[in-house]
Design goal:
single chain, 334 residues, alpha/beta, D-Maltodextrin-Binding Protein, domain 2, 3 domains, 14 helices, 18% strand
């Protein structure tokens, strides 16, 4: 009788455990399927792409069960995201904030790198500048702001949309434009190729003008965040681990960048990596209300809608809060 009772208890225990494992494994399998594929779009700025390239090459996306398709866009990166052709984007917040003010349902959920630094460069003395090459939108406003901080009356200056990075540098070398606004890492590479010509003058940089410090932000369509929140959080985890790996492995990171950007030499890639590392050593992953507020202040000059737009409409803190509470960020020193 005792043996029969023991056997019965064991059978009940086995059935219960089996049922529990079946349901949990099924749940995990469904989550894996739901969060498997992502399409992420980037601007041309290499420092925006770096963490995702490393996450792909070094297996961090795979670790978090993600299959990530990455696309680089020279211009209008926000239109690809808004149009639903991508799920997420990594880039400067200004591009996407402008779209959000106009009604696009986008959220800044986290930060891949604190800042990539921008510079204002001239081939003429400050008071002789007449034509400045920049891109439309916030890039232009940042340029105007930097010039005003230098005491220049911008009403006498023509701002020319130069299009792609290559076109901008080409016009600058040919002296069709007098000054350019550009990421600092891109400028260091261009300057090296131009044999460090002495007539290039640094007018402003992020060391003296904080508005020229531009973070690499993780932007998500609100509908995708709602449907695939776990996928977004896993993407964030992969990026954070990639940033931590980059700090420890700069040479390997340069090789990963060259592999994905064959137009770069290893020396050029190392310039990007060395400019990126200081921006992630003390990574502040949570979206910055202060940065959004500062950008809104600039945008109000050209878009009246920016006056009624609040930081909360563009920021979603749920992913950052989750990673903070779980201790995930602190384990990497972020």
């Amino acid at each position: 009788m005792k043996n029969a009772t023991v056997i019965f208890i064991i059978l009940i225990f086995t059935v219960v455990i089996g049922f529990y494992l079946k349901n949990n494994l099924s749940s995990e399998s469904n989550n894996s399927t739901d969060t498997d594929k992502l399409k992420v779009v980037f601007s041309y700025v290499k420092t925006h792409q770096l963490a995702s390239i490393v996450a792909s090459e070094e297996g961090f996306f795979k670790k978090y069960n993600l299959k990530v398709e990455m696309e680089k866009v020279d211009k209008n990166v926000n239109t690809v995201l808004i149009g639903g052709k991508a799920d997420m984007a990594v880039g400067a917040p200004s591009t996407f904030l402008t779209a959000s003010i106009e009604g696009a349902e986008l959220s800044w959920v986290g930060t891949a790198a604190n800042d990539h630094h921008a510079v204002l460069i001239s081939n003429k003395p400050l008071q002789e500048i007449k034509v400045v090459g920049t891109q439309s939108g916030v890039s232009r406003l940042l340029t105007i702001n930097a010039l005003k901080n230098l005491g220049i009356d911008t009403k006498s200056i023509t701002f020319q949309d130069t299009g792609s990075l290559q076109a901008k540098y080409g016009a600058f070398v040919e002296k069709k434009i007098d000054a350019i606004f550009t990421p600092e890492s891109d400028w260091l590479i261009f300057k090296k190729k131009a044999n460090n010509r002495e007539e290039f003058i640094t007018l402003a940089n992020s060391e003296v003008d904080e508005s020229l410090q531009i973070p690499s932000t993780i932007i998500v369509r609100n509908s995708f965040l709602k449907e695939k929140r776990k996928a977004v959080e896993n993407f964030a985890k992969a990026i954070i681990e990639a940033d931590n790996w980059i700090i420890k492995h700069p040479k390997e990171t340069s090789k990963d960048l060259v592999k994905n950007s064959p137009e770069l030499s290893e020396e050029d890639a190392s310039i990007y990596v060395n400019s990126y590392i200081p921006a992630v050593k003390n990574l502040k992953f949570a979206p910055s209300k202060e940065k959004v507020k500062s950008l809104l202040g600039l945008l109000q000059a050209e878009n009246p809608k920016a006056k009624d737009f609040t930081e909360e409409k563009f920021i979603s803190s749920e992913i950052a809060s989750s990673l903070q509470k779980s201790g995930f960020l602190s384990q990497f020193g972020f």
